Amino acid sequence: MISGRERPRYYLTNLYGEEVSTLVRRFSDLRKKKAQLLTNLAFVTSKYFRSKRNIGAAKAARIYKRAEEALLREQIQSSRQRLNENASTLYRLHLRLAATLSYHDWQKVDTITENTAESLKKHLVGKQTTKFQRIDNNTK
């Protein structure tokens, strides 16, 4: 079992080999990527795609609006597709690691990677929030 004194990476390498240690690192990276993708998807708005409108005519405004909406839909679809790919890879890796590691080691790895991903997600949400607050202040 991973103790508090020993670094988990070295413990896993010594006990299970380099391949499992690499899989655990990949699992952790995928969880971080999932947090990043979820944060990016949550903060996609039409303001992100708003372009400068040089023509003031109503017809031109409708064209701009449709183009912005199409870009927004495309960004959301792309983000959801990347999230789906990430989830399927995470699932396969989760099953493989759960079958390889002992129960206690798996619980520890699962907890560590989940906490790391949550911490990253909170950090990214804070950054995105301040970014959008600046955008809102500049547009007023």
What would a concise description of this structure say?
By secondary structure, the protein is an all-alpha fold.
What would you say this structure looks like, in words?
The protein starts with 7 loop residues before the first helix and ends with a helix. The protein has four helices and no strands. Helix content is 81%, strand content 0%. With 140 residues, it is an all-alpha fold. It has helices spanning 8-16, 18-42, 58-100, 103-139.
Topology readout:
Layout: H1 8-16, H2 18-42, H3 58-100, H4 103-139
Helix pairs in contact: 1-2, 2-3, 2-4
Low-confidence stretches: none
Structural class: mainly alpha
| Rg estimate, integer Å | 21 Å
Biggest sheet architecture: none
What are the key terms here?
81% helix, mainly alpha, 140 residues, 4 helices, elongated
